[in-house]
Amino acid sequence: xxxxATSQNGNDRxxxxxxxxxALVALIGAVVAWRASVADDAxxxxxxxxxxxxINAEETRALNATTAYAQYGAxxxxxxxxxxxxxxxxxxxxAATDDEVLVLNSQRADAHDMAIASERxxxxxxxxxxxxxxxxxxxxxxxxxxxKQRDLxxxxxxxxxxxxxxxxxxxxxxxxxxxxxxxxxxxxxxxxGRGRYVLFAIGTLLAIGGTVAAIVLEAAV
Length: 221
Description:
The two termini are 55 Å apart. This protein is mainly alpha-helical. The model has no long low-confidence stretch (mean pLDDT 90). It is 84% helix and 0% strand.
């Protein structure tokens, strides 16, 4: 076989290898780009879930505060009317006439009736030992009950969204490296002599680096 034929066969084999590498790198790049897209979609879903949880949390805080302080207002009314009724009862003992006693007794009864009505509007279990009302404890229990029914903690979702967004960006960077490898493979056709092998070596190193980086990112992030 002549030297020219041998050289031609070597060029043909090299061209075939380059074509295989181009196809392989293009395939790997497509897969990595797909995984980047999946990570980006998942990041959007996690971000939406975080926003929904944040809205749930603010809505729950507002509703709980409205309920708790409305009941606290009923407790204050109960204390005021109960104390007023007791004071009127004390005044009855010092009343000078029967008419005054009748008026004071009517006022006492009204005050105590209003106290009884207010007593039904707040929960006794939130009373402290000193007979004060614990709004904080009520808000805490209401929050705990609400958290069993809906998501009120947006931080994990936002953290997951950030993690997936970083993963998507990193995978896209790996795609960029693989695309650069394809550029070097493409330039081989216009090069001569050792330049072709230098371009092939650079392209192969970039292809290996981009592939390894993508595998590491997919496994670790």
